[in-house]
Amino acid sequence: MDSLTEQRPGRFPNRKNIIFYEERNFQGRSHECGSDCADIQVHLNRCNSCRVENGCFVVYDRTNFMGNQVFLRRGEYPDFQYMGNMMGMMGMHRGQFRMRIYERENFGGQMHELMDDCESLQDRFYMSDCQSCNVMDGHWLMFEQTNFRGRMMYVRPGEKPAATRPFLEPV
């Protein structure tokens, strides 16, 4: 894993914390992070295991927040090679993806349906904002900015009448 982004910016006393290890089973040199790190290889030669002590993180397999992403919750991950086989156990959705997005809260304003990635809601649908949604199939990551940049929001299946409610979890 080469880069990571923190799910929720940590503030004491609930500081988010992840420790990366060069070797499997938490062996070898280690590096502790509590915030964004665009290139873990600045601190370690490689990363083969990690321990999330508090919070949730998105870990990328390439530098600068690029490549495949893995969502990590509190716990121990002793072997990243095994993680590829674990993806199905970590919430990978194998069916279709479908979500309706609405311009205003409580499903008001323009409505559009998404079934695949969208780099820009503004360019594709001429929407000025997205304030509510209904996720019918799959799990989605919504981004603050175009081209999958900025803060991400993890959205679970179900109706979401307002973007400020807890259904959207900052990633």
From TrEMBL:
Keywords, ordered alphabetically: Eye lens protein, Repeat
PROSITE patterns: CRYSTALLIN_BETA_GAMMA (PS50915)
Transmembrane spans: none
InterPro entries in UniProt: Beta/Gamma-Crystallin (IPR050252), Beta/gamma_crystallin (IPR001064), G_crystallin-like (IPR011024)
One Pfam family cited in the UniProt record for this chain: Crystall
Highest rank taxon of the organism: Eukaryota
UniProt GO BP: lens development in camera-type eye; visual perception
GO MF annotation: an example: structural constituent of eye lens
Beta/gamma crystallin 'Greek key' domain sequence ranges: 55-94, 138-171
Keyword Repeat listed: yes
Similarity comment: family membership: Belongs to the beta/gamma-crystallin family.
Functional description taken from the UniProt entry: Crystallins are the dominant structural components of the vertebrate eye lens.
Name of the protein: Beta/gamma crystallin 'Greek key' domain-containing protein
Native source organism of the sequence: Cyprinodon variegatus (Sheepshead minnow)
